[in-house]
Amino acid sequence: MKIVAIRSFIKHMALKKPYTIAYNTYSDVSIVFTEIQLANGVIGIGSASPAEDVVGESPIQTLANLESDFVQQLVGRDIRCFQKIIAEVQKHFHHLPGTQASLDIALHDAFGKWADISIAEFYGIQSGPLKTSVTIGIKNRAETMAEAAEYFSQGFSIFKIKTGLDVEEDIERILLLNEKYGKQISIRVDANQGYTLSKLTRFINATEHTGLELIEQPLTVGKETDLLLLDQSKRKKLAADESLHHAKAALDLATVNHPFGIYNIKLMKCGGILGAREIAGIAKPAGIQLFWGCNDESIISITAALHVAYSCPHTKYLDLDGSFDLAEDLVKGGFEIKNGLMMINQQPGFGYEWI
What is the pTM for the complete model shown? Predict the structure, then answer.
């Protein structure tokens, strides 16, 4: 079945409320959407919202790439060869993961709809369903507790707390949450490179009794070997995020004494499903668990991440709340949530459609 058209556009979308991490505050997001049409009328939909400060690619650059002659010459290709097409896209748009991801997701969706199979089933479902965490940005103690109470009332029981500006205040926030909710909730932490090794050690020692599930990217990129000074039992709870963009980084970090026991895989960092599966393939024999994350994203790319996550047996954690923050979206369907549990709908492709 031939591809007959490829169209892309960008939309600037407000967030329901701004949030702060260790190095920035966000109130809106620019998302690029891609539509691939087949000769039988099937429409595959992809999207991308790369974080420029992490991967060096802006949504404006993504759109320009998707409108290039290289992408338009893919018209006429056979959707049955979608993986070969994605490999060509990866080679041509090297180190441009937003561009790669939008095409990768749209091609997967078009193929799945054409073949009448969900992408999770195509690769083989080996895990899930799992609960996702919901993210609480850097806030004072009162605001943190208020937002946690709101999420808890909605049925969510896994909180990811952004930290990294003030380690003592970070500790107080975690202790307060643990004191109020105890074993009713699980807590994860994302320092976004905000700690030094001494501050990280201070934070771990002060919160160890709370049973934190994991700590995401505690040190700045380039300082990964400093983590080897920690006991292996502590490193097993550390998750690589900004340090992990692609398969080469995954391989470099998967040493005998690897600094991270968990890999945070984001489609917007690694370029889509094929890039994610490469990282997952490296992590499995190294005994590294998978933690699927996101930026502020459309239901489109969140659903795609969920499908690939459930195709990996070593998926243990989900942090796929990126579409919850959008004031609007352009598609419906994809997944359902019940008390924080994320379930794909088993429809062909990724199971979403334009609103």
Answer: 0.96
Exposure of 347 in the CB half-sphere (CA atoms within 13 A) = 14
Residue 96 burial by CB count (10 A; 0-12/13-18/19+): exposed, middle or buried? buried
Domain with CATH 3.30.390.10 in the chain: 2-116
For 2-116, CATH gives 3.30.390.10
- List, as one string, the DSSP characters of 198-242: HHHHHHHHHHGGGT--EEE--S-TT-GGGGGGS-HHHHTTEEEST
> Would the pLDDT of 23 be above 80?
no
Sign of CA dihedral 207, 131, 134, 219: positive
What are 143's two structure tokens?
A: 């605001």
Over pLDDT 90: what percentage of the chain? Answer: 95
State the maximum Cα–Cα separation within the chain, in Å, rounded to a whole number. 60
* Cβ partners under 8 Å of residue 187, min gap 6: 158, 159, 160, 161, 174, 177, 178, 210, 211, 212, 213
What's the confidence (pLDDT) of residue 149?
98
Angle between helices 273-286 and 82-92 (to 10 degrees): 90
The structural architecture, per CATH, of the domain 121-354 is Alpha-Beta Barrel (3.20)
Q: How far apart are CA 160 and CA 129, in angstroms?
A: 19
Measured between its terminal Cα atoms, the distance across the chain in Å is 25
Q: Could you tell me the two tokens for 175?
A: 């202790």
Backbone angles phi, psi at 288, to 5 degrees: -95, 130
Question: Beta strand 214-216 with 238-240: parallel, antiparallel or unpaired?
Answer: parallel
276 and 308 Cβ atoms separated by less than 8 Å? yes
| Interstrand relation of 341-344 and 315-318 (parallel, antiparallel or unpaired) | unpaired
Provide φ and ψ at 272, rounded to 5°.
115, -165
